[in-house]
Design goal:
The structure is a single chain. The chain is an alpha+beta fold. The chain has one domain: Peptide deformylase (Peptide Deformylase, Alpha-Beta Complex), CATH 3.90.45.10. It has helices spanning about 25-40, 125-135, and strands spanning about 45-50, 60, 70-80, 85-90, 95-100, 105-110, 115-120, 150-155. The strands form two sheets. It has a five-stranded antiparallel beta sheet. Strands 4-5-8 form a three-stranded antiparallel beta sheet. A hairpin with a 6-residue loop joins strand 4 (about 85-90) and strand 5 (about 95-100). It is globular.
Length: about 160
């Protein structure tokens, strides 16, 4: 396992749409291990493969007091409700902004063993899922800021996604 460098804005890879993972092999498993280690070292609650320079549809999540989640080829299949949240990003450290996120989401994908999984989530997990799935689609949180808001400078410990 290795801590990988996190790509930061304005790196063009962050704006590209990621490709489907076609088969699980040793390189995908190594990527997942490295992403988990990188996310925890950052520290963050989520990381998408493009943030470490890999254009594949892989995300990892590390919500406090919950087991880590690995999703391959994740897709949001249902959203409900709407709420305003302050959000940051490991690819734009030191800033947060207010965005609209769903109250709850349902996501389907595959786990690191290739098994199909479906996750129904709310609160921070729902927010992190939307945020990271946006990353693999080339969308960054500040693209969705409420109104004419701009990301505001913060202390490093406030930025967690």
């Amino acid at each position: 396992m290795a801590v990988l460098p996190i790509r930061q804005v304005p790196d063009p890879i962050l704006r590209q749409k990621s490709k489907q993972v076609r088969s699980l092999n040793g390189s995908i498993h190594k990527l997942i291990s490295d992403m988990l280690e990188t996310m925890h070292a950052a520290p963050g609650v989520g990381l998408a493969a493009p943030q470490v320079g890999v254009l594949l549809r892989v995300i990892v999540l590390g919500i406090p007091e919950q087991p880590d989640i690995v999703l391959i080829n994740p897709k949001i299949v249902r959203k409900s409700g709407e709420r305003l949240v302050n959000e940051g990003c490991l690819s734009l450290p030191g800033y947060i902004g207010q965005v609209k996120r769903a109250v709850s989401v349902t996501v389907k994908g595959r786990d690191q063993n290739g098994s199909e999984i479906r996750i129904k989530a709310d609160e921070l997990l729902a927010q992190a899922l939307e945020h990271e799935i946006n990353h693999i689609n080339g969308i960054l949180y500040f693209d969705e800021l409420v109104g004419m808001d701009k990301p505001r400078k913060i202390e490093p410990e406030e930025s967690r996604l």
